[in-house]
Amino acid sequence: MAPLESLSEVKRPRKLFKYRSMNSHGNDCLLGSSEIYFSRPSELNDPFECKPVLTADLDPAAIREYQDYLKEKHAPGVGFVRWQKVRRQAALRLSKSQVRQQLHDDIVERSGFFCLSAVNDNLLMWAHYSDNHRGFCLEFDTEEGDKNYFADAWPVEYSEERPSVSVTRKPDQEQLLAVLNSTYLAKGKDWSYEKEFRKISFDNPGIQQFPPEALTGVILGCRMTDQDRDKLCELVLSRKHPPALYRATMDETMYQLTIETIAGDTA
Predict the structure, then answer these.
(1) How does pLDDT run across 162-202, given as a tens digit for each residue?
(2) Using the 8-state DSSP alphabet, how is residue 183 labeled?
(3) Among 213, 210, 209, which Cα is nearest to 242's?
(4) Helix, strand or coil, per DSSP, at residue 86
């Protein structure tokens, strides 16, 4: 995994894509109000998501320091005597591995991901994320919109082995950088066909707005029904900045899709 300092030098594609089903929750908000949802790691479909091998040499002093950190964050109003009693009880119940996992979760689960792809014609992604080609695919421009909203999407790296992350004591900036490099942007090789990029929202998972002009295209799946096509086109054309419309069609000789223009500016 490349160090964080070099991530700013990553060459991102001009366009990034999001596969969607017509039944996906929030389509009206996404297309009508330019709202996207940043998922917590536990909400994603990979059980290994953000679960590196956790290593740490936690001595009793480090465990106490972490427990004091939890008090400061979650129970600032609890009196000293009562907290000391709770802390002693917790120390008896928590193993070192549990403390490591809690510390890691405290860093990771407060973040959210909006996952994108560098490709718009992958047969498996159309099948898995766009309802067997009956859905659609959104095209976002990494150079359009206020402050180039999608320009800080980072590429995911794929490997056979899970990366290791050392978590000790309370989270600090150095640990957060290690988590970003080895946890947020690491997945198993079986997922490499997705060619994933991630926009990360630190400390703020959930719904956020994006600049409307950053959505530059909508691709209709090759199996989309006429009813769904009419519904989607109505939503798309009602936007203040209507994106271009495309459709995916089956190639006549190859196992691949062709993306054809229907309407709009494709520059």
Answers:
(1) 988 766 555 566 666 666 778 889 999 999 999 999 999 98
(2) I
(3) 213
(4) helix
